[in-house]
Design a protein that fits this description.
The protein is α/β, with parallel strands linked by helices. The chain contains 17 helices and 17 strands.
Length: 524
């Protein structure tokens, strides 16, 4: 075969011939093939691959290569089969090769395979790197989209109660001469403020959790009152367009165990859309109804929000709960939002174990129904509700408080509340000042220290450690109470670790703060 070998030995790529039987015995390998495997002679090559095509293929790729060749031969007997696989050179290097082969029948030798072989390691590595970069960019894009969605969600959830806070605060200021009206408006400010605080707490809590779930906080509430609280947060939106809002509760005020803040967040998104897409003078009806009950004490309740708004096309209803979906006509009308409110509602309802659904007719309005299984405690008509015993908002004994707070408006607020409660208050703006002040006052001068944590010169943790390190006997028993916006469980743990006695989170509840201070004051 002088002409055959003269041609194949000059080929730029590898060329191999082997038998098509189970042994796959190699009959010929040209010089380029030997070079691919790092061998100087036919003997070295045959020893390395154990004389067979099967021995050429890297052990982890053998099964896939055999299966791919068989499949391609069955699909077409007139085309070359094409496979990629790894080989191991004589020097131990793992390389990638591209293999084009075909089955031929010969009269003298029988069935044979011929193979054209090319080392494509650098090309394969470049493709793999390009693929890796593309995957990284895709992940970064998804992270960016998730971050943007989070910011949109956060803005949406904050603006709704902030609207109520600012609106009702302005109304309270206008009606200061009518105490009953002013008090009613201020009650709504407190409700919306508590909603905001619950949102912040949720964000902090979510940052501590993994993807396996969210900790729910079901508490005893009147379901209709929870619904009314959500309506109150959006009432100004309805009043601005003269939309009549009513709440219908067919079964009265059922007492249930519910995570009220999360449910109100879900409901407020529905109410916000009802206000946005209902024209001037329209109506919105919120219905609370009891559905199926179980022997375990759980009842499925439906809270339905029906409006006389512009409605939605049937095609859009099917995808209304997908992120950033907005009906095109609504966008053109100028009423479109960010397109995430309903997505937020669905996610919250999934967390609560419930569901949300919608029915709508173009030009005639929409009805969104939040369905939720709740543990029923009782009905209001069956229970004698005792007024909640109020905690004292006055000092239980004489006490001088050192207030450490760097933000002036917060310092003034705390000073006013504590002074009106009967405490004597002195204040300093930084932890460094607090250490010097305590060190230069006689033993027992202060009854307690209220310590902010985030301060510019010396933070509250450092200041507490420095105070505890003062060589005075009274310092051991000096109550130091954190009064900080750092409200995560980890923040509370750090407060105790550095030597504080208690941790009160901002914005603080007045009764709770005074009760905490009173706990550490000597009783008269």
């Amino acid at each position: 075969m002088p002409i055959f070998e003269d041609v194949t030995e000059r080929m730029p790529g590898g060329f191999i011939v082997y038998t098509a039987d189970k042994d796959e015995k190699i009959l010929y390998a040209n010089a380029a093939a030997l070079d691919i495997f790092g061998c100087a002679s036919q003997d070295e090559f045959m020893t390395l691959v154990e004389g067979s095509f099967h021995g050429m293929v890297y052990h982890q790729d053998k099964f896939a290569v055999e299966e791919a060749i068989t499949r391609q031969i069955r699909a077409s007997s007139n085309k070359q089969d094409h496979v990629l696989y790894r080989i191991q050179r004589k020097d131990g290097q793992i390389r990638w090769v591209e293999d084009y082969g075909h089955l031929v029948h010969t009269e003298k030798v029988g069935d044979l395979y011929y193979v054209f072989l090319y080392d494509i390691t650098e090309k394969k590595l470049a493709e793999d790197e390009a693929r890796r970069v593309a995957e990284v960019l895709l992940v970064e894009k998804r992270l960016s989209e998730a971050k943007n969605a989070f910011l949109f969600n956060l803005s949406h959830d904050i603006r709704t109660p902030m609207n109520a806070v600012l609106g009702y605060a302005e109304l309270a200021r206008k009606h200061m001469a009518v105490p009953a009206q002013a008090e009613a408006h201020l009650d709504k400010v407190i409700t919306a403020g508590q909603y905001l605080l619950a949102l912040i707490d949720d964000l902090l809590e979510l940052s501590e959790l993994d993807v396996n779930g969210v900790h729910l906080k079901p508490e005893d509430h009147g379901l209709t009152s929870v619904v009314a609280g959500a309506v109150d947060m959006l009432r100004q939106n309805f009043e601005a367009k003269h939309i009549a809002v009513s709440i219908n509760a067919s079964d009265g005020e059922a007492r249930v165990l519910i995570d009220a803040s999360r449910f109100q967040r879900a409901l407020s998104n529905i109410l916000s859309n009802a206000a946005k897409f209902t024209p001037e003078g329209g109506t919105v009806t919120v219905s609370v109804s009891r559905k199926s009950a179980s022997q375990s004490g759980y009842v499925r309740f439906d809270v339905a929000v029906a409006d006389t708004g512009i409605g939605m096309e049937p095609e859009f209803v099917k995808k209304a709960f997908e992120p950033f979906e907005r009906e095109q006509s609504s966008t053109r009308s100028g009423r479109g939002g960010t397109g995430i409110g309903l997505t937020i509602t669905k996610r919250i309802m999934d967390i609560l174990g419930g569901s949300v659904s919608a029915v709508s007719e173009k030009g005639k309005g929409s009805t969104f129904t939040l369905s939720l299984p709740l543990k029923v405690i009782s009905n209001q008509s069956q229970v004698q509700h005792q007024p909640r015993e109020r905690v004292s908002q006055t000092a239980s004994g004489k006490g001088r408080i050192l207030l450490v707070e760097d933000i002036e408006i917060n310092r003034m607020l705390a000073e006013t509340i504590l002074t009106e409660a009967g405490f004597e208050v002195e204040s300093v703006p930084d932890g460094c000042d607090a250490v010097d002040t305590v060190a230069n006052t006689p033993a027992g001068y202060y009854s307690a220290v209220l310590m902010d944590i985030q301060m510019p010169v010396m933070n509250g943790y450092e200041a507490t450690r420095a105070i505890r390190a003062l060589k005075r006997e009274d310092i051991v028993d000096l109550p130091i109470i954190a009064l900080s916006a750092n409200a995560r469980p980890a923040d509370r743990a750090m407060s105790f670790e550095c030597g504080m006695n208690a941790h009160v989170a901002k914005p603080f509840d007045v009764e709770g703060l005074i009760a905490t201070i009173n706990k550490y004051l000597p009783k008269e």
